[in-house]
Amino acid sequence: MQEEQLIAGLRAKDRKTTEYLYDKYSRALYAVISRIVFDKDIAEEVFHDSFVKITRKIDHYEESKGRLYTWMANICRNSAIDKLRSKEISQSGKTNTIDDFVYGMESQSGTQEHIDGIGVRELMIDLNDDQKFIVEYIYFKGYTHSEVSEEFEIPLGTVKSRVRAAIQVLKKNVARI
Amino acid sequence: MDIQSYISSGKLELFLLGELTEREREEVLSLAKIYPEIQRELDELEETMFAFDTMSGVAPSQEVKDKIFATLENDFILKEAPKPTAVPADAKVVPISSPWKPFAIAASIAAIVASGAAFYYADKYQERNDQFTALLQDQSVMADNLNQVKQEYQEKDSQLDKMIAGDFKRVEMRGEGFEMQKDAKVDVFWDQNAQEVFIAVNTLNELSDEFDYQLWAIGDGGPVGIGLVNSGEKLTLQQMEAVAQAGAFAITIEPKGGSEAPTLEKLVVLGEVT
């Protein structure tokens, strides 16, 4: 289905189109949330709310302001960050790291998740320490680039170029696997 | 504009992560419209992020899927069955008793005023929206202009460098001794070591479309055509072809595109190298 068709279908509140949207994007969008919100139940709650919001706010989406996935992923990311910073999640000193994420997935029941968990490790291959740090803070801890810059006293320009370098490595890994 | 360094600045990644300010977002979007390379990079990065998210995650549970579609059920139903509720045939029409009439009228007036206001503001909104779109277009035109100005500036800057660094001799060419244009005045700047020649038009009449001004370097081997002169560009430096040896410079009027040999009857200005 073309992106325009998909958007038109969503605006018409068409059930089939919404199911298609779910099948194609739920995994990626849920990943955006679950790497920031660690608890599975809370992550699913955030995902539920975000997905419902996406289908209901589709009239607010403007094609000229960027592609659909970016818009949806930003809704999910922002909801996850809001949840993470709200009082509902106790900040019990638990840090979100890539390893925690992988471990969390591996420890869940079922073999499918186990295989996926190894996928994350493979996707992270070839990231140097700086890039891994950036991915960890921005992707897994929900920091903005300016927060990373302030908190760790790294110049903003350096953060930006590391974000770019890290995503370039991920791009290569995505293509390879 | 250096598109490659813009792309590698990391700004596009932050755009996709939703971390830019509204102003920066607009900048990325209007540049992406102008430069297909930027749009392509954005598309590729989005693909990468989508692929990374898909590959690194697990599917949410079936329960959450069921819950989502249960929540959305009403949205679908509303659209799928938009049946108007028909008024039963035996419904009794209750006449409006008189004490309520003024209120009913007041309510109707309020409704009319409100919908009038709604139309008015909808119209205003549309107008603002159009203005905004027009501004965006202006902005991309300005970005283009800026680019052009930048290129011109760089060109002038390198000319200035040459003028300062080089050993330029100024040769004044005048039209006084000739019949064509008595007040014509054009200066040649010639660096004999670097063999570079610039001219600056001071006074020169416009020509019709069939003719061009042509500059000649007159040396031991006779006159050599070293380029056409743009008479419209006054008092700016125009670079001409290289000259190693010349005793004088001259400009003649030639048929469009210039000639092999000068038409001496149409000599406009001449200046001797002193």
UniProtKB/TrEMBL annotation, chain A:
Which biological process terms from the Gene Ontology are attached to this UniProt entry?
A: DNA-templated transcription initiation
Which named protein is this?
A: RNA polymerase sigma-70 factor, ECF subfamily
Q: Key word Transcription present in the record?
A: yes
Q: Which domain of life does the UniProt lineage start with?
A: Bacteria
Pfam families in the record, alphabetically? Sigma70_r2 (PF04542), Sigma70_r4 (PF04545)
Q: What keywords tag this UniProt record? A: DNA-binding, Sigma factor, Transcription, Transcription regulation
Q: From what organism does this protein derive?
A: Algoriphagus locisalis
Task: Give one GO term, molecular function aspect.
Answer: sigma factor activity
Q: Does the keyword DNA-binding apply?
A: yes
TrEMBL record, chain B:
GO biological process assignments: regulation of translation
Anti-sigma K factor RskA C-terminal domain: which residues?
105-263
Superkingdom of origin organism: Bacteria
One GO molecular-function entry: sigma factor antagonist activity
Q: Name one Pfam family in it.
A: RskA_C
Gene Ontology CC entries for this record: plasma membrane
- State what protein this is by name: Anti-sigma-K factor RskA
Q: Which organism is it from?
A: Algoriphagus locisalis
